[in-house]
Design brief:
single chain, about 140 residues, mainly beta, five-stranded antiparallel sheet, about 60% strand, elongated, disordered N terminus
């Protein structure tokens, strides 16, 4: 016992550092949906992880056109969840696209895990539009 204590003291005096094992990293979930309207289509992929009772939205990407990535227009993103009869929108954005768009969200964009959320991307090329929706659960 005396030897173990002496060895511990020597380690402390020698500047030994004890590191705790790192916490397990959260798994990133990717959900993808597509939509189509009259030869025009869109693909939407959302990325999120789940930490401490919340789905934390990280971001995602979209592509649209008669051929993926070649259409000029707008894409409107909406992330929400329903609690009882109330729909809470936690993020929305509309932006121009040339067929491919990557987006990130603020770190405060979250959906409580006790509710099912949805994320949708509405693609509009000025003539036709379609909406792709993914679940957040």
């Amino acid at each position: 016992m005396k030897t173990a204590v002496q060895a511990g003291l020597l380690a402390i005096l020698a500047g030994a550092t004890v590191l705790a094992a790192p916490a397990q990293a959260a798994t990133i979930v990717r959900r993808t949906a597509t939509c189509q309207a009259t030869g025009y289509s869109g693909t939407f992929t959302l990325q999120y992880d789940t930490v401490s009772g919340y789905h934390r939205i990280i971001g995602g990407y979209t592509s649209s056109g008669p051929y993926i990535g070649d259409a000029v227009g707008t894409v409107t993103l909406r992330i929400s969840y329903r609690a009882g009869s109330t729909t809470h929108t936690v993020y929305s954005q509309s932006s121009a696209t040339t067929g491919s768009t990557t987006f990130t969200t603020p770190s405060t964009t979250t959906v409580p895990t006790i509710y099912t959320g949805t994320a949708s991307a509405k693609f509009d090329n000025g003539t036709v539009s379609c909406t792709a929706t993914v679940p957040i659960s």
